[in-house]
Each structure stands twice: as C-alpha cells, then as structure tokens.
# Entry
Amino acid sequence: MSGSGKMTVAEALAPHVGSPPGARIIESDRIRKAIHGVAAETRLPDKAYRPDVSVRVYRQMAWRSDLIVSDGGSVVADAVFDNPADRDRIERIAYERTIPFAGFWLSADPGVLWQRVSVRKGGPSDATVDILSRQLQRNAGPLNWHKNDADRSLSEIVGDMLTLMEGHTLVAVGIGKTGS
# Structure
C-alpha cells in the first residue's frame, strides 16, 4: 500500500545487499514514468495505472532486475507486488539464476497509511488517499514473503530484514495492510 515506507526501506536496504556499494534499486514508480516519457515527479493520469500498463511495468522491473543480476550485480525491487504473478516473476529470476532471494511484505495499519499519504509531497509516487482506498480493497492472494510491521521505526524494520537476508542478491520489497 502507498504510505508503507517501501521506498525509504529500499533505500536503507540497498547498501547492505550484495557487494559494495550495494544493490541497484528498481522502482516501479520510476519505470511507469519512463514508459510514459515523463520526469519522475510528473503526475500521471489514472489511465497510466490500468492493468495492462501495470503488466508492462512489472515485466520491465523483472527484465531490469534479471539484467543486473546476470551481470553479477544485486537488486532491491521496490513495488506494490499485490499480484501473485508479479511476485512469482521477480522470485523466478532468482530461482533461474540460482541466487538467493528475499521477499519482504510491509504491513501497516490503514490509519497510518492514510496519514502518511495525505502529508506526502513530491517524489515519483502518484498515490493519493483515493488510490490508497482502492489498494486497501484488493486481495493480494497467498503470500510467502517475510511480513514486517511498517508501523515501527525504520531502524527496527531494516534491522529485522538484514537479519533475514544476509548474503542475498535479489531482494523485493512489497507492501500490504495489517492482516494481509
């Protein structure tokens, strides 16, 4: 969900993934903007978030991630990952390349998410409280990623993740709501 802190967490994790200087962050928001030929801070219309566009975004994320890890690099993939097929796609890269994968699902109370989204300014995310409302109604399906409470401090969240992902090359940070 928007407001869970996934980008903040991805930025904090990236230096600890793989060899120094760390992992490249592959971010769905920036890929979506690139597909539409606009700067990361440009707000996109609702049609840019249609399911067919999202399929392109997640395929592009997977392609970029595969390219980086096939060349010996490391990746932190930052996206909602609320579709099981998108989670499977990113995991499959690690499986096919025989590299360690860690998937993390950030869960937060909807009230916390609402507060964070409502005060957000700038950046590549187009999320509004209306978008968050739609996200909260979705069912992400079965989930086998590590669940993390995003209502905690960044240092606590990242500390828990680092304990679980030592030696990993491909890390995905997805987001969810409490109880998902």
